[in-house]
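User: tokens in, sequence out, please.
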């Protein structure tokens, strides 16, 4: 999105700090205040052009990222470690990610899901990264969330074929 490496690194550090705060045991009002302070500090030095390029609100305007941070659902979700649940899954599993997914690290998450399923004794699982697809399984240029609304494709036919082929390959007794 045209940002230099220094900004990208600083933004990554900010996002990690926000996630650390949201996963913490801080009471909700204190966590929200800490997230607000962290986000405002990150974006304080940006020009209006940079804020616009990043899709950020103007200073003082409502910030959707802060609104999401206020959600009890998000805090609960961030505290979940899915490994335990995955280790108890005994049915066939298909885990797919888009190679251009910027919201979920494809390789890291697929490896972790496969390891957790295997640790639980599940041998009927497939993990696969689909080239050229974003978080919503749309064919895309760069995978950035701003692109989602600009893409006419709702769901990639390649992803649908992958899912259908996997389902048809499961023995009937396991379905």
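Assistant: Sequence out:
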């Amino acid at each position: 999105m045209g940002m230099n490496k220094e900004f990208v690194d600083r933004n990554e550090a900010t996002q990690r700090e926000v996630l650390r705060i949201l996963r913490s045991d801080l009471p909700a009002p204190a966590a929200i205040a800490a997230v607000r302070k962290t986000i405002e500090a990150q974006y304080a030095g940006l020009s209006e052009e940079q804020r616009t390029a990043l899709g950020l609100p103007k200073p003082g305007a409502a910030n959707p990222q802060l609104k999401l941070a206020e959600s009890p659902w998000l805090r609960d979700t961030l505290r979940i470690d899915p490994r335990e649940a995955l280790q108890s899954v005994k049915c066939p599993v298909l885990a797919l990610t888009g190679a251009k997914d910027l919201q979920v690290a494809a390789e890291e998450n697929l490896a972790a899901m496969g390891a957790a399923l295997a640790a639980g004794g599940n041998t009927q699982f497939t993990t696969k990264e689909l080239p050229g697809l974003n978080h919503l399984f749309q064919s895309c240029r760069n995978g950035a969330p701003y692109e989602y609304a600009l893409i006419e494709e709702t769901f990639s036919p390649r992803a649908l074929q992958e899912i259908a082929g996997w389902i048809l390959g499961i023995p009937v007794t396991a379905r």
